[in-house]
Amino acid sequence: MSGGYDDRDGKIWVDGTLVDWRSAQVHILTHAMHYASSVFEGERAYGGKIFKSREHSERLIQSGRLIDFEIPYTVDEIEKAKEDTLAANGLSDAYVRALAWRGAGEDMGVASARNPVHLAVAVWSWGNYYGDAKMKGAKLDIAKWRRPDPATAPSQAKAAGLYMIATMSKHAAEAKGCSDAMMFDYRGYVAEATGANIFFVKDGEVHTPLADAFLNGLTRQTVMEMLREKGITVHERHIMPDELEGFEQCWLTGTAAEVTPVGQIGDYNFEVGALTRDIAQSYETLVRS
Question: Which of 26, 112, 148, 152 is 20 to 30 Å from 93 by CA-CA measure?
Answer without folding.
Answer: 26
